[in-house]
Structures are given as C-alpha cells and as structure tokens.
Write a structure and sequence with these properties.
By secondary structure, this protein is an all-alpha fold. The chain is about 75% helix and about 0% strand. The protein has 2 domains: about 70 residues, no CATH class; about 325 residues, Na+/H+ antiporter like fold (Up-down Bundle), CATH 1.20.1530. It is globular.
Length: about 425
C-alpha cells in the first residue's frame, strides 16, 4: 500500500509532513489506549497495537521517512522515562529494606541475562544478538506495577520489596545494556576482537554519563533555590529543560564519546531526588507527570510502528541469524526471560531469607516489560542500523505486546494471593 503520509518534495514539505504524522500518531494512539483500557487491557498495549496498524507494516499511514524524522521525539521520551526511573531510586528508602532488595535485584537480573543469552546461542543465533537480548531481558516496567499497587492500596512484604526493586532493576539493566550493546555492536561489525578494547568504550560511556547526570541533577537543585515558592510553571520549565539537556548532551557527546541516552537523565533524576525533601520531590514529580502523556503516547505508538511483521517470518540471513526465524527467537526470548526472572527472584529471596510470600510471588510481579526495554531496543536499532537493528527491535516489541497483555494480570494475582491487596478496592 502506498503511504498516505509520505515525505513531499523539498525539505520544508518533509518537515510539515513529519509534523502531520506526529499529530496522527498521538491522536490515534490516545484513542487506542482508551479503547484497550475499556476492555481491561493496559493502555500501553493499545498504543503499541495502534502503532503497528498505522505503521509501514500494515496500513502505511506513517512512512519510514516520517518515523526517522520523529526520532528526536523518541529520544526525548526516553529521557522522560529514564528521569522518572531515577527519581524513584531513593537511597533513604533502600536503607529501610537493607541489602536484601539489592541482592535480589542483582540475582534476578543476572539470571534473566544468562537464561536468555544461553537459549539464544543454543538455537544457533550469533553471540552479538544473544548479548543484546540478554541485556534487554533485565528491564522491568515500573509503570504497570506502580499503577496496580496504588489502585489496590497494596501493602506487605511483597509490595515493600517489589517497589524499590523495579527502580533499581532498571538502573542495573541500563548499565549492563550499555556494556553488552557496545560489545555486541563491535562483534557484529568486526571492528575489534580485543576484549580490553571492547570494554573500554562502554565503561567510558557509563562513567561520563554518570558524571554528566550528577552535574545536571545538582543544577536542578540549585535552580530550585532561586525561587522560594515553586510555582507549577517554574518546576515544569526547570525539569523539562534538564531532561532535554540530558538527552542533547548524551547525543552530542563529550570528548568524542557519546553518552547513554538512558543512563544520563536517569542519574540526573536520581541525584535530584536524593538531594531534596520528599515534599519537594513529590511536587516536582507530579508536575513532570502532567507533561508526560503526550510524549509517552507518541513514544509507544511510534515504537509499535517500528515493528516489522514481515521480519517475524524471515530467516534473517542478513543479520547472521542463519536458519533461525525471528518468530522463534521471539518465543525463546519471552519464555527464557520469564524463567530467569522467576528463578532469579526466588533464589535471591532464599539467599536473603526473605518472607515466604516474597519467595513465592515476587517473580511474577517482575514480568511486565515496556518503556525501558523499548528504549534499549531503539538504542540497539540506532547503533546497529539495517536488518540487524530491525531484528532486535522486532523481537522486543513483539515480546512487549505479550508482556503488557499478561504481565499486569500476573502482578494482580501475585498481590492478591499474597494477601496484600485492600479488599475494599476489588
């Protein structure tokens, strides 16, 4: 089918066509999200499905050219997601749960990486793909988890372990992803076989991302001191500008080194959150949340548009995935990530002598996967380019639809079975 919205002749026409596509993406995504919520399916899934339908794979209402032009929207949305995750990582809360949460978080992330990595290799896929998918498997979507705990007023050992864990989990995942993406990309391109050379670039990227994030986070705190009574407008401008600067600096780079587009704003949010009072933090987060919907609708809908349905049935020889269909890899990724999360969280809970309910039900609450994983897949797509990048993002997006369909139900069941849901909310 010919694209309804394709780039017209001339640079100016192309820009306005891209803007028109953005408006279409947001409106269709919004209504799709509302429709899915009415049938008891998470709104994020609605955004993804809407993107698939209007994208090049199905109706072609939005062209490849328009999606490339809207990559800046995707990057800024990643900044908002990462900043929000960082603002949830409060060291003062981690002190209450002790080292237990840290140990469980590390073990469940490690098992997810290993299970996915080994399974992908066993079926004959290349090492670079196994490394990248293994790293993406660590990510857990905090949105559905936090939404459900608030809705059902959940309280208890599982809830108190789960909430700090999901924020810390994504922080660990982002660091692991930064390293494994760089190593995987080098293996794919064949630029270097020396391990020290492979690891030097990602470590430098992580170090500079942390430093820049710390500086931006501290600058937000300083900026807030200039106005005693923080108006909604002032907080919104300071926060949004800080996120945009984080994303811009990450993309431009320092000393010729690109920074992590996820880790930089995440560290900025974490630094800011841990240097101000709880009341100020809640106020700022609520202001930023009011700005989020439009950007996040665009992000998830565009992510769905990137899903190339034809790739799911391809053997994928161009990416080195010889004899293995992308659909098979997707199924393997979904299953082994679930097994890794379940076994890793159970093992971590046993090692730390956690509450019996934590051992039994925590793993099920960690299955949702959305924003951060899609962000990682987008980063991999940008780094690898071509069929290799398309393969990664197709696997992750298809898996995300499955996780967002069934993950939230798993969270509810786990909280209900562990007796942590307020019965008056059911």
């Amino acid at each position: 089918m010919n694209y309804l919205l394709s780039a017209s002749a001339g640079a100016e026409g192309s820009i306005y066509t891209t803007l028109l596509s953005l408006g279409l993406v947001i409106v269709i995504g919004m209504y799709a999200g509302r429709l899915f919520e009415k049938i008891k399916i998470p709104h994020i899934t609605g955004y993804l499905v809407a993107g698939i339908v209007i994208g090049p794979s199905v109706l072609g209402l939005v062209s490849h050219e328009s999606m490339e032009g809207l990559s800046i929207i995707t990057n800024i949305a990643l900044g908002f997601i990462a900043f929000g995750i960082g603002s949830e990582i409060l060291f003062r809360n981690l002190k209450e749960t002790g080292v237990q949460v840290v140990i469980i978080t590390i073990l469940q992330a490690l098992f997810a990486v290993v299970f996915v990595l080994v399974a992908i290799l066993v079926v004959g896929a290349p090492l670079w793909l196994a490394l990248i998918l293994g790293a993406i498997a660590t990510a857990t979507a905090p949105g559905p988890i936090m939404m459900l705990t608030k809705k059902y007023k959940a309280k208890g050992p599982v809830t108190s372990t789960m909430l700090p864990l999901v924020g810390l989990d994504d922080a660990i995942g982002i660091v692991v992803f930064g390293i494994l993406l760089s190593v995987g990309a080098s293996l794919y391109t064949g630029h270097s076989d020396n391990f020290s050379e492979l690891i030097k670039a990602p470590l430098m990227e992580i170090l500079l991302s942390v430093v820049v994030g710390l500086i931006i986070g501290l600058l937000i705190k300083i900026a807030l001191k200039f106005e005693k009574h923080h108006s909604h407008e002032y907080l919104l401008v300071i926060s949004v500008v800080a996120i945009i600067i984080s994303v811009a600096v990450a993309q431009i780079g320092i000393f010729g080194q690109h920074l992590s587009i996820i880790l930089t704003p995440m560290v900025a949010g974490m630094t800011f959150a841990n240097t101000i009072k709880n009341s100020e933090l809640h106020h700022t987060v609520s202001v930023v949340d009011s700005f989020n919907p439009v950007i996040l609708i665009a992000f998830f809908t565009l992510a769905g548009a990137h899903l190339d349905l034809s790739v799911l049935t391809n053997i994928g020889e161009g990416t080195g995935v010889v004899g293995v269909s992308v659909a098979v890899l997707c199924v393997i990724y979904i299953i082994t990530r679930i097994v890794g999360k379940l076994f890793g969280s159970w093992f971590g809970a046993v090692v730390t002598k956690a509450h019996p309910n934590v051992r039994k039900w925590l793993g099920i609450t960690l299955l949702p996967q959305a924003g951060v994983a899609i962000g990682m897949a987008n980063a991999a797509n940008t780094t690898l380019h071509g069929e290799a990048g398309t393969t990664v993002i197709t696997i992750v997006l298809a898996a995300t639809v499955v996780y967002e369909l069934f993950g939230p139900f798993g969270v509810k069941v786990a909280l209900q079975k562990s007796g942590e849901i307020d019965s008056s909310t059911l």
